[in-house]
Amino acid sequence: MMHSTCISIPPLPQTIDGNDFFDHRCVWVNGPVIVGAGPSGLSVAAALKQQGVPFVVVDRADCIASLWQHRTYDRLKLHLPKKFCQLPNFPFPEDFPAYPSKFQFISYLESYANHFDITPRFNETVQSAKYDETFGLWRVNTLSLSPKPTQVEYICRWLVVATGENAEKVMPEFEGMEEFGGHVMHACEYKSGEAYHGKRVLVVGCGNSGMEISLDLCNHDAKPSMVVRSSVHVLPREILRKSTFEVASSLMKWLPLHIVDKMLLAIARLVLGNIEKYGLKRPSMGPFQLKNATGKTPVLDIGALQKIKAGEIKVVAGIKKFQRGAVELVNGEVVEIDSVILATGYRSNVPSWLKENEFFSSDGIPKSPLPNGWKGKAGLYAVGFTRRGLSGASLDAINVAQDIAKSWNEETKQTSKSVAARHRRCISHF
Fold this sequence. Notes:
- This protein is α/β, with parallel strands linked by helices.
- It folds into two domains: 24-167 and 348-423, FAD/NAD(P)-binding domain (3-Layer(bba) Sandwich), CATH 3.50.50.60; 170-345, FAD/NAD(P)-binding domain (3-Layer(bba) Sandwich), CATH 3.50.50.
- It is built from ten helices and 23 strands.
- Helix 1 (39-51) packs parallel to helix 10 (389-429) and helix 6 (244-252) packs antiparallel against helix 7 (257-272).
- The longest helix is centred in the C-terminal third of the chain and has 41 residues, at 389-429.
- Keywords: Auxin biosynthesis, FAD, Flavoprotein, Monooxygenase, NADP, Oxidoreductase.
């Protein structure tokens, strides 16, 4: 990754704890700046490496894939088979199971970064990124507090936003939460149900995380109640020993999406039974139509539904308000609880730092629908916002790298020709 310091600016008159000054540097990047060192950022970096394009990767965390390393529960496994989750040009080890664990996936990502010699700049939080129309360049400002408070301004022709759809946790507010008195956490802080043995736990949310955390709590002899506020599609993870996703993908090559959805729901009814009588109402739109329209992923069941049917996971209505040691539901029922786990999802944080309003919407997702959501104007790109998981991020990364490489090679040739012309003029002069 080639870059060079272009300007040295004296320290700004700002202090940390009243006795330390910010160091301030400006760095020219001879290639793109990639914001985010998760699977999306690594995929772009690797693809650029193969194209011979230099780059800089910055990340606010202290490691690659911090979401996976710091904000996931221990029992987590990939929801799709590994062949649908591998990053470009680097397959999973053959001895990995079909559905690798969280720890195996982290190991794979670390091997990926080592294989392509990707060395992100960690502990650098992007405070702002803005396109300078006067010079036709991006100005990306970061702040690092360790080992010394440092502000860096990266100047580059291309900016790749790879922070993804899950950068920040969503923390809903409920009436009476301050009166509850029990332990409340977001799912990103949950590791295992071991600490909840015998406890009454309210899990807010019924997506894949809410279902799996409820299952994990059951397996550790806790007593979970799962809040189902809206409709949800639950599908078997496999159909006839094949991934449901794989079956659906194959069918969609030949049949319209709404027909595929009907077939999947018929199979789900045969395999799982009528889930609505257990409080799990299905949406009116089919599972893959819904995912394409809203990004809401169907739940792939790995055992939680059996626990619901057995009464070990209690499905409850939406929350009206909390009270001391209990929660009142919208149907008037009061449930006594010891702890709350908010499996309420994540959101993009792009609007907080990217000073741009044409390509990204106010919720931090590209405005352009598939397949055009990876490229904006003036050298702005996005990877990992397709709502198509790791496979979608990989496709984005390849497109972005090829597009940047084309521009970079053209500009490099023009620069080389210009330098050669100046060199010839100098020789003729002497």
